[in-house]
Amino acid sequence: MLKRFIGYYRPHLKLFFADMFCAFLVAVADLFYPIIAKNMINDYVPNRNLRLLLIWGGALLAIYCIKAGLNYFIQYYGHIVGVRIQADMRRDVFKRLQKLPFSFFDENKTGTIMSRIVNDLMDISELAHHGPEDLFLSIVLLIGSFLILGSINLPLTMIIFALLPIIVFFAVKMRRRMSHAFLRTREEIAEVNASLENSIAGIRVSRAYTCGDYEEKKFEVHNQDYQKARGAAYKVMGWFYAGMDLFMDCLYLVVLVAGGLFFFYGQIDVGEFTAYLLYINMFLNPIKRLVSFFEQFQNGMSGFQRFEELMAQQEEPEAPDAIRVDQLKGVIDFEDVSFQYEARNGDDESHMVISHLSMHIDQGKTVALVGPSGGGKTTLCHLLPRFYEVTDGVIRIDGYDITSLSRMSLRKNIGMVAQDVFLFTGTIRENIAYGNLDASDEEIVEAAKKANIHDFIMTMENGYDTYIGERGVKLSGGQKQRISIARVFLKNPSILILDEATSALDNATEMLIQGALEELSVGRTSIVVAHRLSTIKNADEIIVLTDEGIKERGTHEELLQKNGVYAKLYQYQFRN
Questions:
Q1: pLDDT of 21 strictly over 70
Q2: pTM of the predicted model as reported, rounded to 2 decimal places
């Protein structure tokens, strides 16, 4: 995992090494101060050498000025490296999300996914910048301090550095406990985000049903779980910091006592003892940096672990020799097709939705699917563009097994209008253009006219550039539906799927939209899912689907004459 993390530095190596070089120069500059201080105390001051005293004082000032510039570079460009790595990871994970199967989104909450992309990667950015820098500076300062202190008095230096293995052992042991604790906090904050996203998205429903108190209690459960997890993590951090502070204080005590004894017995002079005290402060700084590094490492790597889990998800399978077609005619065959959703949420069994279904749809024909809920009508529509893979059997278009076609070319030839219209945050123009991102303004307007929405758009203050709010909240259901129809007109697919496209609309709006849908269906192979039987009377074939498979099929008149399931549904809807 660490190797994969380091791999993200590759595109930014020049800036990263420049940052590390500046950090190295800062560490070297820090090592100069005790040496100059020792010479001043032992030589320049006692011997009244004012010239050298001022020269080296000026040299120190110059070093500090250079150091300030280097620190600016480290703080600014070092963080830039971290931000760029974070952006690369966010790009990669978003790219992966675009290729994951629909089953992944069925299983994972939107807020949880967002937490992995936003919160987790933020801490990775901090680790990417400060981690290598703190580790590198600590190593340079420790080695530099050891060499310089050893040159003054090796026995005293060995006594001081003998404590290092104990400190490292303690840090490694605590790191394992911190790793588990920080991973737990990430899982809990993801749940908080998921609950928050769900509550905000459903704010109108909760207000309508006066369930604000219930939502608060539900959110508070996740909030308290996060608080407990974070508290447990801080408890481990408390032990870690307290232990490290104790070791550092003991280290300082050893220098004072041991150094005092060495000075008492004439092994070191006043200047060397002073240098030791200065260097030991410098010696404590890299240890403090290591402590900071361990915290960042736990935060960052627990986030990277969750990032890796997301990146490890299997993409939608694509045949290596997948066929790319520009235009399909639209001859559709379902051959002994079965489908079941995978068992989840503790279920022991998978649920069979479609069982051994076979049917043929000619090019340009309109086939309507009707029947009770749970019969697999919507699922059938999702199998055609391969949102889900069939459990058994084959679906063919123009003789091609759809699994042999590239998903891109397959889906480019299929247009969908569903009951639950999704509009993106943005303008009307942007949402219609989603059908063909290369379309001209004239083509967008023409698509809107065909969908009977152009006149309404022109009554708005900004026309096609009107901002429609999140998910089109500023539009009515009929207006959103007509924009989605315009989107399909612009796409111009050879196969059209209408899944309850008008069921949520009032009769007047339905009549307006039905005309647009009929024009949209002309010359295309259309599969229409409908509960309102009045909208499918003119279909070339009507298929009655139940949980037992195809019960009846035929034209509207033929099915009425059979006096079966369809006839009873029709008579019930028009009983008045």
A1: yes
A2: 0.68
